[in-house]
């Protein structure tokens, strides 16, 4: 019997930086959850649950969040413009309002077809809408030429880190706990992730002293720290920064010449206080002290995947550049040109997100009702989880939800549970999360996947799944787990 020749690629000769990169949100737990989902769909009755809850990832529509009607109606016309040939049927049979038809015509006039490439920076009329949205939000001008549409915020982060990181000595300050996009991308780029710990005792506050300590340590080790990432509201913590918190970060950026990467994709998911953008706070400070803050380089990102839109699959987003050298801007644009352009249908969705129906327009009432229902439902479920963690689960502490789509409770496990985890070569929080999945079908992400202060254990869960019955399943599992390992 002949032997097949060896394949050219194997696990030992592919890019080693990809091999060591970690992305826990879609790691082993998510893979196992999907296997359980398929078994249930195929009629398997042997599992102790009837439904998998993917609380591991901020994917609203996978967990039954309904799309905004106005958005999907406009997109349907963009995908099949022949629908416009029978406007009366659209109105009378499918209940499309006139402003839906008008918006679709306006966008089609600019893009012509969503099946064609656009300008690499994005469709000009859509960038104008984004700039207008930012100006109305912040009260300061925004230039469409500074707006770059992208395939979700993740695509923008990837492009920017490719530009910022010149070699293996390049470093970026990253909050811990953090969304693992940043550390994974830096790992692939063979650049340095410089962690700074958020303060759990102050509701995951951004402690500028901790940042300075991390920065000094990295510089002493020869790292060229070039940028700082701030996620506001926070992922996975849900923390929401005040105007003073933002000023502290901008002060540090001014002193240390750091590029500020403001990940603001959860800006509409705020439960306590109001969202303040880094752009707004920077412009205010520049009016007060134009020399000190005049050359700060800021990039802020937003996305259609979160908020009340929840259109993760359409891959729409943007970033705005502020204060960058024009030769660097040209290189960013060149890098984006290599990728041709972001999905055009996603770009159109960005336009709808930043320019929704206005009061007095035919679609406004339904849009507002749908938006508010989603917003109130998220807050209700966040509070249900928060109360369950703090009042019904032994050894669990959770900060009050301020924003975003997640809670990040701390869990204190019995020594026998930690020993059991070590016996199977697992991190204790990973062991806990796997047992939770096996018992309930609820998939969360262990805190070790985001980074956590040494000696602490956490897990991250979304509160996107409808209803609160699944919260009780977590409570029941936790009691049984703690009893088992006393």
From TrEMBL:
Keywords: Aminotransferase, Pyridoxal phosphate, Transferase. The keyword Iron-sulfur does not apply. GO terms for molecular function: pyridoxal phosphate binding; transaminase activity. One of its GO terms (biological process) is L-alanine catabolic process. Its cofactor is pyridoxal 5'-phosphate. Residues 98-469 form the Aminotransferase class I/classII large domain. Pfam families: Aminotran_1_2. Belongs to the class-I pyridoxal-phosphate-dependent aminotransferase family. Alanine aminotransferase subfamily. Homodimer. This is Glutamate pyruvate transaminase.
């Amino acid at each position: 019997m002949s032997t097949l020749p060896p394949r050219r690629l194997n696990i030992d000769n592919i890019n080693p930086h990809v091999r060591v990169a970690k992305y826990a949100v879609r790691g082993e737990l998510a893979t196992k959850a999907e296997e359980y989902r398929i078994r249930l769909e195929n009629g398997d009755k042997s599992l102790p649950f009837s439904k998998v809850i993917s609380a591991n990832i901020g994917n609203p529509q996978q967990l039954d969040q309904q799309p905004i009607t106005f958005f999907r109606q406009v997109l349907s016309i963009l995908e099949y413009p022949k629908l416009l040939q029978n406007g009366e049927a659209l109105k009378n049979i499918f209940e499309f309002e006139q402003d839906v038809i008008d918006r679709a015509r306006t966008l089609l006039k600019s893009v012509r077809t969503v099946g064609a490439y656009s300008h690499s920076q994005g469709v000009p009329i859509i960038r104008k809408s984004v700039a207008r949205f930012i100006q109305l939000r912040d009260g300061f001008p925004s230039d469409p030429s500074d707006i770059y549409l992208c395939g979700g915020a993740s695509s923008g982060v990837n492009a920017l880190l490719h530009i910022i990181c010149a070699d293996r000595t390049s470093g970026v300050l990253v909050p811990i706990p953090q969304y693992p996009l940043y550390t994974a991308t830096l790992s692939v780029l063979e650049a340095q992730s410089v962690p700074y710990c958020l303060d759990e005792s102050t509701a995951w506050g951004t402690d500028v002293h901790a940042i300075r300590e991390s920065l000094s340590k990295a510089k002493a080790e020869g790292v060229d720290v070039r940028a700082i990432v701030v996620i506001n509201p926070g992922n996975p913590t849900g923390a929401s920064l005040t105007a003073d918190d933002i000023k502290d970060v901008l002060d540090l950026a001014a002193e240390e010449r750091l590029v500020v990467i403001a990940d603001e994709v959860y800006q509409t998911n705020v439960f306590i206080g109001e969202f303040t953008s880094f752009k707004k706070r920077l412009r205010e400070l520049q009016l007060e002290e134009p020399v000190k803050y005049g050359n700060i380089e800021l990039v802020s990102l937003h996305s259609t995947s979160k908020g009340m839109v929840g259109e993760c699959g359409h891959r729409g987003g943007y970033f705005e550049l502020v204060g960058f050298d024009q030769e660097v801007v040209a290189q960013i644009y060149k890098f984006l040109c290599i990728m041709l352009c972001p999905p055009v249908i996603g770009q159109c969705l960005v336009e709808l997100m930043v320019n929704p129906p206005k009061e007095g327009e035919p679609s406004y009432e339904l849009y507002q009702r749908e938006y508010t229902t989603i917003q109130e439902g998220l807050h209700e479920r966040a509070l249900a989880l928060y109360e369950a963690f703090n009042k019904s689960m032994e050894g669990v502490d959770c900060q009050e939800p301020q924003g975003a789509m997640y809670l990040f409770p701390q869990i204190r496990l019995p020594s026998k549970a930690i020993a059991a985890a070590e016996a199977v070569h697992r991190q204790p929080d990973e062991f806990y999360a796997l047992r939770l999945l096996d018992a309930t079908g609820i998939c969360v992400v262990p805190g070790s996947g985001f980074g956590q202060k040494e000696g602490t254990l956490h897990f991250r869960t979304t509160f996107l799944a409808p209803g609160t019955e699944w919260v009780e399943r977590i409570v029941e599992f936790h009691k049984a787990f703690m009893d088992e390992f006393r």
